[in-house]
Amino acid sequence: MEHSGLHVIDLTIVLWYVVILLVIGLSFSSRTKTESELFLAGRRLTWPAIGFSLFASNISSTTIIGLAAFGYTYGVAASNYEWMATIILILGIFFFFPFYIKHRITTVPEFLEKRYDAKVRKYVSVFTILLSVVIDIAASLYAGALIIQVFYPNVQIWQTCMFLAVIAGIYTAAGGLAAVVYTDILQSVLVLIGCFILFLAVLGQYGFSWGNAVAHIDPKWMQMILPSSDKHLPWTGTLFGLPILGFYVWIINQYIVQRILAARSISHARWGAILGAGLKLTILFLMVMPGVLAIPLFPDLDNPDKVFPTLMTSLLPPGVLGLLLAAIIAAIMSSLDSALNSASTLIVNDFLKPSFPERSTKHFAKLGKYTTLILMIFAGVWAPFISRFEGIFVYVQVALAYLIPPIVVIFLGGFVSRRVSGKAAFRTLIVGHLLSIVFILWKMDDRMGIHYSVLPLILFILNAALLALMTYLYPNRDTKKLEDTTFYSNLGLQEKASSWYLDYRVQVGVLLVLTIGLILVFR
Amino acid sequence: MELVDNTNIIYQYTILIIFGVALLFFIFMYRYSVALRKSILEEEEAKRLLTSNSFKLEKSVLENQKLEATQKMQRERNLRLEQEVVLRNKELVTSTLLISKQKEILAIIEKETSQFSDLMQNTDRSVLKNIKRIIRTNSSIANEWEDFKLHFDKVHPQFFKKLSERHHTLSQHEIRHCAYIKMGLATKEIARLMNINATSVQIARVRLKKKLELPREMDLIGYILDL
Q1: B33/B29 Cα distance (integer angstroms)
Q2: Does domain A8-388 have CATH number 3.30.450.20?
Q3: Which positions ≥6 away from B182 have C-beta within 8 Å?
Q4: What is the pTM of this model?
Q5: Min Cα–Cα distance to chain B from A241, Å
Q6: Are A49 and A188 in contact, with CB atoms under 8 Å apart?
Q7: A61, A332 Cβ separation under 8 angstroms
Q8: Could you tell me if A471 and A420 are in contact, meaning their C-beta atoms sit under 8 angstroms apart?
Q9: Where exactly are the structural domains of chain B?
Q10: Contacts of A36 (CB under 8 A, 6+ apart)
């Protein structure tokens, strides 16, 4: 099976995809007159939209390429981060999302203002904006451009970046969250179909037999839980490090949580999160497995990142290849539009709105659109520069993970205890981040001889101790005010399910059984 | 490992999957849109009911307010009318009394003039005659009665009509008495106006009551005032 590059039919499929995407995205542009319509789709999202959008926003081009590469190098353990997301989402369904829905917040930092004060809100908001604009948006664009360059070597990186940014920016600015979420349905279905076909194609090399395929793989690649001495993902890191980062991504990061805030009701938020969590479980088969199964087929690739493109070009016929390419662009687009929209939401809601409270909601909707366009230009221009200092960028990306524990600590601390005051939380954030920077600069993981994925746990414990100390120094005197923002509150949000299979507790039970089953199968 | 060419199978799978997903999507969208339409309709119905109820409530409140306003206006108008009637009545009384006073004065003047008419010369007598004629024309009772009736009708319309309808045997004198009572004049004033003394007024009243065929326990003055 020899393909010399791309067939014209592949390009046609990609172009059709872009056209359909723009049509869907722009069809929402007439429904974004007010700020709530732009940022929260009028709080009318239903569970299928929420679920698919959670999945699509989370999967970026880096995920698709990276997980296959990860699978190729380390086996199925690469999917640990994915099923951990399922567990974190379940936590959210039970404990956190009801608070978000109850308070009708637009941004997660807004909840922190209700619990603490405006200072904490603004700090966390700035952190989230920087993380999504400088790292998330740019990384997604750059990685996407790199993949497209594999197929179209003549196209420059900056051209692809600008093209992707402009398309995503236009429909995000025009249609807001509604456009983001409803195009996400298309994107995630495309990603799921594409990856499933690739999985089938790879399985086809083993005569479409799962048993035959597994027989060809060294059992050590089929291990989900790796020993604590493992270089890449020891079980200690899986169990302690990943949940802390995952907590930020799935519970605090506006980028993901925004579609949950926009749910029609708490039931829809829960069902949507359950759908999203369920879809995350398929990643093991759809994205990691092709990488693992590629080991006997292409045993000597110089760069594991080439696994996915190699599989695509050598196993997929024309047309299907275009479908996969469209799926990859879909993955880029779906994370790009969410990041643009969430950053714009944070900027308008946490900074512009408190400064100009007298302006109308229509005015803020307009401001939000302009902000999205500005961010789009910024991302498109900034992303190509990553190629100049790629090594540093990857390092910064990893290092930023160390900045997350303080935020998780004050979020959880404030949720569990009423005694924590805004003053204590703010001081913990500042001291905690200074500590993180010291850890990063001193390369603490090497000095302490531990795996870097365990470091977030150590930082988490240090920050928790710090928060306890700060709370002792600046305790919260007026605990009555916090009745609606802590674990002990009764929100009165019980919505009775009309039948057993609509009860979110039953659904969560099924999800848990599936997750544990998956871990047990790939022990 | 040698790569196997599965092109045809992959095409078949791809087409199958895409059709399958499309079919699932349409089935789901259909069921979902049916359910959604139903829930939207229910929501709208509930909203409509709510708004129509509140509209009705608002309307009835408005109507009440309007009614109260008109009632208030009516009351004010009635009050104003009553005040006007009282005022007019007072004017009538004053003018009636004034006229009767004038008449008395004229009568005195006439009496005085007739005393010395014999003493006068012819030319002077003609002057005196003129004076007497003026006095007589001005104090003509019939004239005065017609004037009074006119004024009285303006203040208490229908009174004479009602009175004569119910009791057609009343004399002019008695009708006048009734009118004076209606105007709320005191017995003494009536006596002076009718040129009789107060006791005669009382007697006239007893007779009047009999003629009006009022039962014994009924008050004549009350009856006439209510008429």
Answers
A1: 6
A2: no
A3: B156, B159, B224, B225, B227
A4: 0.74
A5: 37
A6: no
A7: yes
A8: yes
A9: 156-227
A10: A42, A43, A106, A361
3-state secondary structure of A45: strand
Q: Looking at the DSSP assignment, which residues form a beta bridge with residue A234? A: A226
DSSP A224-272: SSB-TT-SS-BHHIIIIIHHHHHHIIIII-HHHHHHHHTBSSHHHHHHH
Distances (CA, A) of A84 to A76, A283, A285, A288: 14, 12, 15, 15
Residue B160, φ and ψ in degrees, nearest 5:
-65, -40
pLDDT in tens, A249-260: 999 999 999 999
Minimal CA separation from B55 to chain A, in Å = 27
Which tens digits make up the pLDDT trace of B18-48? 999 999 989 988 888 888 788 888 888 888 8
**β-strand partners of A45:** A263
Q: Phi/psi class of residue A443: alpha, beta or left (left: φ > 0; alpha: ψ in -120 to 50)?
A: left
Identify whether the C-beta of residue B207 lies closer than 8 Å to the C-beta of residue B173. Answer: no
Q: Which two tokens stand for residue A212?
A: 């035959």
Neighboring chain A residues of B11 at a CB cutoff of 8 Å: 317, 319-320
Q: Does B3 touch chain A (CB under 8 A)?
A: yes
- ipTM of this complex prediction, to 2 decimal places: 0.79
Q: Which CATH class is domain B156-227?
A: mainly alpha
Kindly list the residues from chain A whose CB atom is less than 8 angstroms away from the CB atom of residue B13: 197, 200
pLDDT digits (tens, 9 = 90+) for B153-180: 877 878 888 888 888 788 877 888 888 8
- Closest Cβ–Cβ partner in A1, A193, A204 for B9: A204
In sequence order, the 6+-apart residues with CB closer than 8 A to the CB of B52 are: none
Smallest Cα–Cα separation from A127: which of A346, A422, A364, A452? A346
Sequence spans of domains, chain A: 8-388
pLDDT in tens, A270-294: 999 999 999 999 999 999 999 999 9
Distance CA B38, CA B32 (A): 10
